[in-house]
TrEMBL record:
It comes from the Bacteria. GO terms for biological process: iron-sulfur cluster assembly. It comes from Tepidimonas thermarum. A scaffold on which IscS assembles Fe-S clusters. It is likely that Fe-S cluster coordination is flexible as the role of this complex is to build and then hand off Fe-S clusters. Belongs to the NifU family. NCBIfam families: iscU. One of its GO terms (molecular function) is iron ion binding. InterPro entries: ISCU (IPR011339), NIF_FeS_clus_asmbl_NifU_N (IPR002871). This is Iron-sulfur cluster assembly scaffold protein IscU. One of its GO terms (cellular component) is cytoplasm. The gene is iscU. Residues 2-127 form the NIF system FeS cluster assembly NifU N-terminal domain.
Length: 131
């Protein structure tokens, strides 16, 4: 199968690879797996507690090129967004941006789920403090 140029670009030059310390107060961590292929994606956000804006993001993905490209793209997209805005990112937008073929759509779903999980985790940590 041929990967699109954007997939290859993100795969060869992944943005924001790495981890934050997940015990940090202002970090949210989402870890999701794809039952279809066994790939695993970890996506983290760093939130400014004053503004509620996502200031930085990191990912580690054990998976195919499309999964890596999807997570790389999403870490770029979430920066500067509020938590609400970040959860509105749709896998269809990711798939469209990367021109993913139908068999690779679940890779983009992984990225959507990972960002939602990261936001959930952050919210859980801050459930007792006013947002
Ligand atoms: Fe998951 Fe592509 S099948 S690596
Ligand atoms: Fe399964 Fe890409 S995440 S093939």
């Amino acid at each position: 199968m041929a990967y699109s140029d954007k997939v290859i670009d993100h795969y060869e030059n992944p943005r924001n690879v790495g981890s934050f310390d997940k015990s940090e107060e202002n970090v949210g961590t989402g870890m999701v797996g794809a039952p279809a292929c066994g790939d695993v994606m970890k996506l983290q956000i760093k939130v400014n507690p004053q503004t509620g804006i996502i200031e930085d993001a990191r990912f580690k993905t054990y998976g195919c090129g499309s999964a890596i490209a999807s997570s790389s793209l999403v870490t770029e997209w979430v920066k500067g967004k509020t938590l609400e805005e970040a959860t509105q990112i749709k896998n269809s937008q990711i798939a469209e941006e990367l021109a993913l073929p139908p068999v690779k759509i679940h890779c983009s779903i992984l990225a959507e789920d990972a960002i939602k999980a990261a936001v959930e985790d952050y919210k859980k940590k801050h459930a007792t403090t006013p947002a």
